[in-house]
Amino acid sequence: MSEFVEVARLSDLAAGTMRAVAVGDADVLLANVDGRIHAISNRCGHMNAPLAEGVITGAVVQCPFHGARFDVTTGQKVGDAVIAKPPGIEKAPPEMMPFLAKAGQMTAKIATKHCVRYEVVIEGDIVKVRV
Question: The whole model's pTM is what?
């Protein structure tokens, strides 16, 4: 079993915020939910987008790419990806439309998986994670 690794200062992670950290080869999302620090994979279980670039509301982070949602306290998927027409698509050249339609159809078929959850310990002002 791996050891806990220092990844951040508690004082740098205000309630309601999140940030990405590297723990060895793992890309980890730290999230402060009501003063408690949680750690899950920073990679969306749909198409691997960085969750830290998304939005957190309460204990749920929404992926910035297709909107899949995950509970940061458990890593569980709480909402599938939503494939919508991107803004400005009507301005795309007509010859691009078949390609874009096919890409949307293929993307919609990709299953969204849960995120891995990691153990967190707090020692004073130091946040440590075990992957």
Answer: 0.86
